[in-house]
Amino acid sequence: MSSEDFTVTPWSVEGDIDYDKLIQKFGTEKISDELQARVKKITGEVHPMLKLGYFFSHRDFDKILTEYEKGNKFYLYTGRGPSGSIHMGHLLPWIFTKYLQEKFGANPHLPDY
After folding, report:
1. Phi/psi at 11 (nearest 5 deg)?
2. Most CB atoms closer than 10 Å: which of 9, 28, 37, 110?
3. What distance in Å separates the CA atoms of residue 106 and residue 77, rounded to the nearest whole number?
4. How far apart are CA 59 and CA 26, in angstroms?
5. Is 93 left (phi over 0), alpha (psi -120 to 50) or beta?
6. pLDDT in tens, 55-109
7. This prediction's pTM
8. For the chain, first and last CA: distance in Å?
9. What share of the chain is helix, strand, coil (3-state, %, to 5)?
10. Which residues pair with 30 in a beta bridge?
């Protein structure tokens, strides 16, 4: 498998991953040093998973930070359930989401209507 050939699905990862191509394919943006600095300014720290690049891209995180800086609240949840049996890899997004919920006071539950 060449460096041009890689596969990322919910069920497998194969080849040498080109993260820039992956970001382009999924329509996300890199988590920049500037974005991390904004997080630090708001929360007082940057979570180790961000510092170490465990989470390397985002979709609209910058817009969420802008709205939060304006005083607007938001909801944050991990989305749908795991694609298969739960394993250790599922813990990373759950732990990070819980951290963000706590730091930003983001309610993990939708309001009752």
Report:
1. -110, -20
2. 28
3. 9
4. 9
5. alpha
6. 999 999 999 999 999 999 888 877 666 667 887 878 888 899 889 999 999 876 6
7. 0.79
8. 52
9. 45, 10, 50
10. 57
